[in-house]
Design a protein that fits this description.
Helix 10 links the parallel strand 4 and strand 5. Helices cover about 40% and strands about 20% of the residues. The longest helix is centred in the C-terminal third of the chain and has 23 residues. Among the domains are: about 160 residues, no CATH class; about 90 residues, no CATH class. By secondary structure, it is of the alpha+beta class. Strands 3-2-1-4-5-9-8-7-6 form a nine-stranded mixed sheet, sandwiched between helices. Strands 10-11 form a two-stranded antiparallel ribbon. Helix 2 packs antiparallel against helix 7 and helix 3 crosses helix 13.
Length: about 375
């Protein structure tokens, strides 16, 4: 019978370790941390996310109890003090580089189609305790950070991420995001900036967003809508001047599709696509719900509401590693067909981290198989 490595080891094999050493060298970390290597650091943080560890002591105790299984992975048991120091001082930029590499490899593998890219843009706030007040203070009693994401709902995969303090406006972070020419971008009122919209339009991107209730539209053409929830479909122009008397940069015909929700509220959906059916535009805006589900999933399943450090560097590292862990889980699920639900698959992975079994067997009863550890027979 073919023996398997532990589920945790199998998951780690999906990480681009070939690029890891390049990142370590690029950030000047090679040979500087012999006692607690960068690989041990990253592995411990991934484990903390999967196991839902609420503190440094839990990471040390749980991984220490499985120390014999860490040897094949090539990492050491994390000590609480070493992990705390690493989170505080090792540059989060190295982890951000590794996330970018993993995204570049995971995104094409997870997409079902190479055409018609639709990206959702949004952010989510993360509440921090008062010990992070020196860098993350939002108000007198609130501290927080923001995770800004560009998300591909067709791949269930983030394609870009950045982390800021809670005070940074969404549109400020969005202006630093890379733009994929020709893609469709869907976002809400937090990204209300005509100059940025004009930049997307110039790149050949389709925009689907909302107009504020007080933004007038000079109507050029009134189209017959399909009825139902679609109240109107109009072509027009935005105000020629902004409030500061500057020229409005999106100086072209645009479109407004008014949609009535089940609650009775009416949305003014904006787009620069003058040709697609009104229902298609409404359905695109409705897809924003997918990124809300993604945020909820990451927060609840990967437990990013509890942090292992309070410094800005430590918080950034943990948020980045949470996204790395999410991508590893998505790639791992794609290697098997037995479990189709991402939530169920993740639960099975978390409950079988140290068991020696294949990913396609996680939904089957655990068999007691003889294996060798340090030359001695044990039952797994």
């Amino acid at each position: 019978m073919r023996s398997h490595p532990s589920v945790f080891h199998t998951l780690l094999k999906l990480f681009p370790w070939d690029e890891f050493n390049h990142a370590v060298t690029r950030h000047g970390l090679a040979g500087r941390f012999e006692g607690f290597s960068p690989k041990s650091h990253l592995t411990a943080m991934i484990y903390a996310q999967l196991a839902g560890c609420g503190g440094l002591r839990a990471v040390e105790a749980e991984m220490g109890s499985h120390g014999n299984r860490l040897t094949p992975i090539g990492v050491s048991v994390p000590r609480r003090s070493s992990l705390a120091e690493a989170n505080r001082y090792r540059p989060d930029a190295m982890f951000a580089d590794l996330l970018s590499v993993l995204i570049q490899r995971a995104h094409p593998a997870l997409r079902r189609s190479v055409k018609d890219f639709t990206y959702l843009i949004d952010s989510t706030g993360v509440r921090l305790n008062g010990l992070s007040g020196s860098w993350a203070s939002f108000s007198e009693k609130v501290c927080g950070a923001k995770l800004h994401i560009v998300y591909d709902p067709d791949a269930d995969c983030p394609v870009y991420a950045s982390i800021t303090t809670a005070k940074v406006n969404d549109i400020t972070a969005a202006k630093a995001m890379p733009i994929t020419a020709g893609a469709t971008y869907v976002f809400d009122l937090g990204y209300y900036d005509f100059a940025w919209w004009a930049k997307l339009d110039a790149a050949g991107c389709r925009i689907v967003s909302r107009l504020k209730t007080n933004t007038p539209l000079t109507v050029i053409e009134e189209r017959e809508g399909p009825g139902g929830a679609i109240l109107s479909d109009r072509i027009g122009t935005l105000p020629a001047r902004l409030a500061s008397s500057r020229k409005q940069p999106l100086d072209k015909a645009v479109r407004e599709v008014r949609v009535q929700l089940e609650t009775g509220a009416v949305l003014r959906i904006f787009t620069n696509d003058l040709d697609a059916p009104a229902q298609e535009i409404a359905d695109l805006y409705k897809r924003r719900w997918a990124i809300e589900l993604f945020f909820r999933w990451v927060k609840q399943v990967l437990k990013i509401r509890k942090f292992l450090g309070t410094s800005e560097n430590a918080v950034r590292i943990q948020l980045i590693v949470a996204l790395i862990t999410f991508l590893l889980l998505r790639l791992a699920q794609a290697t098997q067909t037995a479990v189709t639900s991402p939530l169920t698959f993740t639960r099975l992975v978390k409950s079988n981290l140290w068991h020696a079994r294949g990913l396609g067997q996680l939904d089957q009863p655990l068999r007691r198989q003889p294996s060798l550890v340090n030359g001695q027979g044990v039952l797994l």
